[in-house]
């Protein structure tokens, strides 16, 4: 091993890494003693003790009292101070903007639905965010979920919302409000939420498909990692060619245009089945998740049977339905908590 190639970690960076581990442990366990934190993090007791004292002095953690004794002095217990920091999670949809306010322990302390901003433009979004900052001075983190491709905080593909074309959410709101800002595609956020809810497993590969109001999209996790792609275009399934003449979006449009409901549904199932076959033959996921308000459990049987005509059935993933809104909001919640706990 060439030591010259190892990244240099200065004392300040090391101190922040230790505090991040303490935050994560206190978030998970709610309350802990110094000895418990040393054991769960693998960090020495003196180092944990010094870091906790500093975090207590700054108000980041609270001394809660005395824990159970094993024979000597009763140890002090600590927890995160819920009022130390606030985070704002925002879901931007065509017709509405949904806001979640979280405290430092990850508890939801407020939720509001305001008018949609995607067609109005950044000015209205900025105004809405500003109202929450005025009410919550401890706001330090902003998470935005948007129906489009995002490249390091900047919109790279969001058809239909020209006022946000090439808009850099991250740079704009970090400068405007001095916040830690993260921006994520709505389907990436949703698959993160589902993945966390079922219990994170680094071996799992998932695809979450949503037809949606803004056109279809997919969130993809492969072996525990979100797939964003070289230009952050991953999951834009509208463009996947499924026949000699039609891509997925065109097949959906043709299905929805049919007056006869049974024939329309059959065409929809055909389009989805072909897409399932594509995912099976490319990334071979363990599970494909569909929105429960769009696809029924009976539909899943039809999709599976039809997909098996394109690829060997034993390779097909488990097909399930889930509550898209619940998964999306849970993903926003988890991303916001992670950002708060990582704050320096």
How is the main sheet built? 5 strands, mixed
Listing every helix as H and every strand as E from the N terminus to the C terminus, the arrangement reads: HEHHEEEEEHEEEHEHEEEHHEHEH
What is Rg? 23 Å
Low-confidence stretches: 1-6
Helix share bin = 25-40%
Query: How much beta, percentage-wise?
Result: 15-25%
Oligomer: single chain
Q: In terms of structural class, how would the helical and strand content be classed?
A: alpha/beta
What is the overall pLDDT average? 93
Number of strands: 15
Question: Key terms for this structure?
Answer:
disordered N terminus, five-stranded mixed beta sheet, alpha/beta, 15 strands, 40% helix, 10 helices, 23% strand
Would you spell out the secondary-structure blueprint of this structure?
Blueprint lengths: L10 H19 L2 E2 H8 L3 H13 L3 E6 L9 E5 L5 E7 L3 E7 L5 E8 L6 H14 L3 E8 L2 E3 L2 E4 L11 H9 L2 E6 H12 L8 E5 L6 E6 L2 E2 L21 H10 L3 H22 L4 E5 L5 H11 L10 E5 L1 H19 L2
Parallel strand pairs: 4-7, 7-10, 11-14, 14-15
Antiparallel strand pairs: 1-3, 2-3, 4-5, 5-6, 8-9, 11-12, 12-13
Helix pairs in contact: 1-3, 2-3, 6-10, 7-8, 8-9
